[in-house]
Amino acid sequence: MVGAAVLALDEVDRDLLEGEHRSSDHRARSPLAKVPVLELDDGRYLGETRAICSYLE
């Protein structure tokens, strides 16, 4: 999906096996510790894959 569009994205890796998605830093973006999360230009976050895909279309 992202590969089909020309987008500038900053990617942040989270080690799920180490529980990095449950860190306070990540929970500030995704209170339910969901992955992936997309930060929008207005500072809001999308944490549902389908919502992210719809937004990027």
UniProtKB/TrEMBL annotation:
It comes from the Bacteria. One of its GO terms (molecular function) is transferase activity. The lineage of its organism: Bacteria, Pseudomonadati, Pseudomonadota, Betaproteobacteria, Rhodocyclales. The keyword Cell membrane does not apply. Residues 1-57 form the GST N-terminal domain. Keywords: Transferase. It holds the Pfam family GST_N_2. This is Glutathione S-transferase family protein.
